[in-house]
Design a protein that fits this description.
Elements: E1 5-9, H1 14-25, E2 30-34, H2 42-51, E3 56-59, H3 65-74, E4 78-83, H4 90-95, H5 97-115, E5 122-128, H6 152-169, E6 175-181, E7 183-185, H7 204-212, E8 219-222, E9 234-235, E10 237-239, H8 240-255, E11 263-268, E12 274-275, H9 276-287, E13 293-296, H10 311-317, H11 325-341
Parallel strand pairs: 1-2, 1-4, 2-3, 4-5, 5-6, 6-11, 7-10, 8-13
Antiparallel strand pairs: 9-12
Helix pairs in contact: 1-2, 1-8, 3-5, 5-6, 9-11
The structure holds uridine-diphosphate-N-acetylglucosamine.
């Protein structure tokens, strides 16, 4: 049976591109819309080299409803949306809150508005463990209380979840799966696609691989006096390909009418808490490359520890993040080396 077409917004971005690969490999025709604000067209070449298929691509901004109307007119066979199109830098969101609210919320509202009139049945939404703030208890389940967001970025994720919920409760004939990602890391094992941070990376793994490459002098470990076994913060680092696969499962379940309710929420993590220092160790053991690092003061706004209880996703979606951290680190390193070969970084 032919699979329905999926619209992937933000599909040339980091998680989006890995998801397009998995969708195409599972037989879904894809159309991507992306404004290339934090990615580039060459990502399409990487996707094509891995899958043998070049996804259809529309360069455009989802905050512009006319662009989306045209897209749905051109692709009348879209049945599902996976919405990655959003800005995601915590610090930048504090400096440019309106840009964050506009980008992230207008995009979502436009998509929701256009779904039913265009025969689109369901939307998968990229949320984040940031909605749990600093949790009182780890691991966190989907029922762990939501804490007040500490940044406009985090707030857009909470508000987006509310918008989707209110819209569906109003009786809108659409379904949604909300996926709360923990910390996505790594790259495709082919090294054809991966994370391409703009400028100096904020996130740990791109900073780490750039330091290993000699692009950065040393990695600062932000704090070693937290209430954790080695004093550094603890996260749930999830391999980006595992994460991508969860989207394929989620959209398949939703579009085949298997959802238990019109909105389903899943944590996407490994269930394992790994500290910043442990992650550096894992990288060094997997690659044999030393990462110069030193302990630096805590970073404002950081969560001390958070990791997922992924039981719901494991049992209901039948999905599990099972890539060993050593493989993930090796893939991240190979991607960094590929960027060097290509003269990008
Ligand atoms: C943050 C956001 C998350 C968002 C994600 C992606 C919060 C609480 N979390 O995750 O919602 O989805 O970014 O943009 O706002 N670290 C270092 N040195 C570095 C960089 C990071 O020690 O050079 C440490 C941090 O202090 C932290 C850990 O590594 O303890 C992970 O940091 P990072 O990769 O930035 O992700 P989060 O802050 O967990």
């Amino acid at each position: 049976m032919t699979k329905p077409r999926i619209l992937v917004t933000g599909g040339t971005g980091y998680i989006g591109s890995h998801t397009v690969v998995e969708l195409q490999q599972a037989g879904y025709p894809v159309v991507i819309i992306d404004n290339l604000s934090n990615s580039n067209r060459e990502v399409l070449d990487g996707i094509e080299r891995i899958t043998g298929t070049r996804p259809d691509f529309v360069e455009g901004d989802c905050t512009d409803i006319a662009t989306l109307r045209q897209l749905f007119a051109d692709y009348s066979d879209i049945k599902g949306i996976i919405n990655f199109a959003a800005s995601k830098a915590v610090g930048e969101s504090v400096e440019k809150p309106l840009m964050y609210y506009r980008n992230n919320l207008d995009t979502l509202i436009n998509l929701l508005d256009l779904m039913a009139p265009n025969g689109v049945e369901g939307i998968v939404f990229s949320s984040s463990c940031t909605v749990y703030g600093e949790p009182d208890i780890n691991p966190v389940t989907e029922n762990t209380p939501i804490k007040k967001a500490t940044s406009p970025y985090g707030n857009t994720k909470q508000i987006s979840e509310d918008i989707i919920t209110d819209f569906i409760h109003s009786g809108a004939p659409v379904k949604s799966v909300i996926l709360r990602y923990f910390n996505p890391v790594g790259a495709h094992p082919s090294s054809e696609i991966g994370e391409l941070p703009n400028g100096v990376p904020n996130n740990l793994v791109p900073y780490l691989t750039q330091t290993a490459m000699g692009i950065r002098k040393e990695l600062s470990v932000f704090g070693d006096d937290y209430d954790t076994p080695d004093g550094s913060c603890i996260r749930d680092f999830i391999d980006v390909v595992d994460l991508a696969k969860a989207h394929v499962t989620a959209i398949g379940r939703m579009l085949s009418g298997k959802s238990e309710s019109a909105i389903e929420i899943f944590n996407l993590g490994t269930g394992r808490g790994v500290s910043v220092l442990e992650l550096i160790d894992a990288f060094e053991s997997a690659t044999g490359v030393k990462v110069p690092h030193r302990i630096a003061p805590r970073r404002a706004g950081d969560i001390e520890k958070v990791w997922a209880d992924p039981t719901r996703a494991n049992t209901i979606l039948g999905w599990k993040a099972d890539t060993p951290i050593a493989d993930t680190m090796l893939n991240a390193w190979h991607w960094q080396q590929r960027l060097r070969q290509r003269g990008i970084m």
